[in-house]
Amino acid sequence: MQEAKAECYGRWYLPAGRVEPRESLQEAVRREVQEETGLQCRPLTLLAVEERGAAWIRFVFLARPTGGTLKTLQQADAESLQALWWDRETPALPLRSRDILPLMELALQHQASPCHPPVLPVELPCRSVCQRFLLLFTGDNGSLWVLLETTAGAPHLPLAASSPSKAGQRLGAALPQLLQRCLAPPAMPVRPQGLLGVQHLGKDPGQSDGVCLTVVAALGGEGSQQQPEEEERAPPALQDPAFSWWEVEEGPLKRELLRRLQAASFLPIYS
To answer: Do 96 and 12 meet the contact criterion of CB atoms below 8 Å apart?
Structure first.
């Protein structure tokens, strides 16, 4: 779409915009695409999540047109001047920013060979910007363990809230802080895998319009300091009694988690 904003007038960009109050992420996608291109669309999956801290998170969607017609110059308004399909062979248009080029390549790669199952935001309320951690340990005997935190008597996946007011603090800082709190030294290396899902409702501003990112990470693996064989069968010791390891028994959940880990089949997050 061709930009109508004064600071980038006449430049081209992918349809994009901010989520409005009381709007879900998918509603925002459909609205922005229609306003800026004239097309109606159906979101198919998230392709990636980009972040520069809790105050700036961009959700990149792959979508399919379902109706409407491309906006022409005669329909230009404050949202955009016009829209067109680009075949990647026609000489490149003057872009507002080249940051969309890797996203277009990512979409083509995903269409040719999906690296993760379709992921669409789950519409559940969340008060703030936070992360839910699925921290996994695999033993050399095929065992699989998940880190749990217990508060108010109920075990759950560890959570970390982020404050938009802390300028410059990336969301990625929360995982090392969690590990430093719960693991007894010497700490084992951790490998972030990506996102399992996104939770966002968008209703009731200030009450349920936050977002929760479910981050998957694996302890140990390549690059870790190997321990004696008898010690690799159990997860590392914990120093905070609020945390515990839960062993995932044989079954569909364990098989699916191991398969996704081996294939690195998670939504990428870029910081």
So the answer is: yes
Give just the sign of the alpha carbon dihedral 82, 56, 107, 255: negative
For residues 167 and 238, the answer to whether their CB atoms sit within 8 Å is: no
Instruction: Tell the burial category of 192 from Cβ atoms under 10 Å away from its Cβ (0-12, 13-18, 19+).
Output: middle
**Residue 261 contacts by C-beta under 8 Å, 6 or more apart in sequence?**
136, 138, 193, 216, 218
User: Rounded distance, CA 164 to CA 158, Å?
Assistant: 20
Question: Averaged over 229-246, what is the pLDDT?
Answer: 82
Strand 57-68 to strand 159-162: parallel, antiparallel, or no bridges (unpaired)? unpaired
Residue with tokens 């010791």: 237
Q: What is the pLDDT of residues 164-222, one digit of tens each?
A: 776 667 888 899 999 999 998 877 889 999 999 999 999 998 889 999 999 999 997 54
**Per-residue pLDDT, 228:** 46
Q: What share of the chain is helix, strand, coil (3-state, %, to 5)?
A: 20, 30, 45
Please give the sequence-ordered ranges of beta strands (E in DSSP) within 187-231, or none if there are none: 190-200, 211-219
Tokens of 25: 């992420």
The whole-number pLDDT of residue 167 equals 62
